[in-house]
Design a protein that fits this description.
mainly beta; Immunoglobulin-like; six-stranded antiparallel sheet; about 10% helix
Length: about 210
C-alpha cells in the first residue's frame, strides 16, 4: 500500500510476485486485531463455567476466546491418495456443550490450503486459476465439508482434492512421442480455521506427493 493515495497504481495498491518478494523483502510484519471472541449461550444461569460466575446473577451469555475453542492438537491427516485425487480430513473433538455450538455454527469454516515443496526444500503457495477453490490472495484452497462422527462425537472436516483442479504442469516425454511422463510433485497442506471472514487458527502441515 503506497502513501501517495488512491491515484497511485491500483487505487493506492501495488502487487509483486511471491518469487520476487523472496529476493527484495528483507523483513515483513502482519498486523492483527485483538484475538476474536465467540459469543455463546450458557446452558444455565445457575450452572457455572470456567468463563463465568455461579449464581442467579450469572450472565446468560459469555464471550469466549476462539483460541480456547480450537484444540491445540487438532491434526490434519491424509485419508487416501489415488492417481486422480487425495482425501484429507481433520477431526476436532468437542469437549463441552459450549464448543458444540461453536463448531455447529455455519460461520465456522475450515479450508485446506496448498503449497508446493521443491526438491531443495523451498515452500511456495500453490496459486489457483480456479475462481472457486482459492482464497482471496489467489492461493489454492478447498473448503471442507463437515460431519459428526457418531462414535467419538467429534466434528470431522474433510475435503477431496482432484488433481485436475490443481495448477501443476504436466510434461510430455521426448523419447517416445506418444508416451507421457508424469512429474512427481510434493505438496504441503494445512487446515485454516475461519470464524466469519477471519482466519483464527492454522493446523500443523502434512506433506504428500502427487503425480500429474
Amino acid at each position: 500500500m503506497n502513501s501517495y493515495g488512491e491515484s497511485w497504481a491500483d487505487k493506492g495498491y501495488g502487487y509483486i510476485s511471491y518469487s520476487i518478494a523472496e529476493s527484495v523483502i528483507l523483513e515483513a510484519y502482519v498486523l492483527k486485531p485483538n484475538p476474536p471472541f465467540y459469543r455463546i449461550d450458557l446452558p444455565s444461569v445457575n450452572k457455572g463455567t470456567r468463563y463465568g460466575p455461579v449464581g442467579h446473577d450469572a450472565p446468560r451469555t459469555v464471550d469466549v476466546p476462539i483460541a480456547d475453542l480450537i484444540p491445540k492438537d487438532a491434526q490434519l491427516r491424509i485419508d487416501s491418495i489415488s492417481p486422480t485425487d487425495a482425501k484429507l480430513s481433520i477431526p476436532v473433538s468437542v469437549s463441552s456443550y459450549n464448543q458444540g455450538f461453536f463448531w455447529g455454527d455455519k460461520s465456522t469454516k475450515v479450508y485446506i490450503r496448498l503449497f508446493t515443496v521443491t526438491p531443495d526444500g523451498k515452500v511456495r503457495p500453490l496459486m489457483s486459476k480456479d475462481s472457486v477453490n482459492r482464497l482471496s490472495n489467489g492461493q489454492t484452497a478447498f473448503k471442507s465439508a463437515v460431519k459428526v462422527d457418531p462414535k467419538t462425537y467429534a466434528y470431522v472436516f474433510s475435503v477431496q482434492i482432484p488433481y485436475q483442479k490443481l495448477n501443476i504442469r504436466k510434461e510430455t516425454g521426448k523419447k517416445e512421442p506418444r508416451s507421457e511422463q508424469y512429474v512427481s510433485t510434493k505438496l504441503r497442506a494445512e487446515a485454516v480455521f475461519y470464524q466469519g471472514q477471519e482466519a483464527v487458527a492454522v493446523s500443523k502441515p502434512v506433506d504428500f506427493e502427487v503425480k500429474y
